[in-house]
Amino acid sequence: MSLMTVDEVAEFLGVKDVRVNRLEREHLLNAADKDPDGKPLFDKADVEKYKEIALRLGGL
């Protein structure tokens, strides 16, 4: 399992980091773990699946 930070997810999805935090808070993109500072870390496979589904539904 490869973990991605909020900034990495934001860059991959082409959105701002605030949006990634909101997606996590609203349980639309679930964090796999937390870093030592308490920030969410996401499984790369989950992020790729989320992007695919979001694009099918009309975009991010």
UniProtKB/TrEMBL annotation:
TM spans (from-to): none
Residues in Helix-turn-helix domain copies: 3-52
One Pfam family recorded for the sequence: HTH_17
Superkingdom in the source lineage: Bacteria
Protein name (database record): Helix-turn-helix domain-containing protein
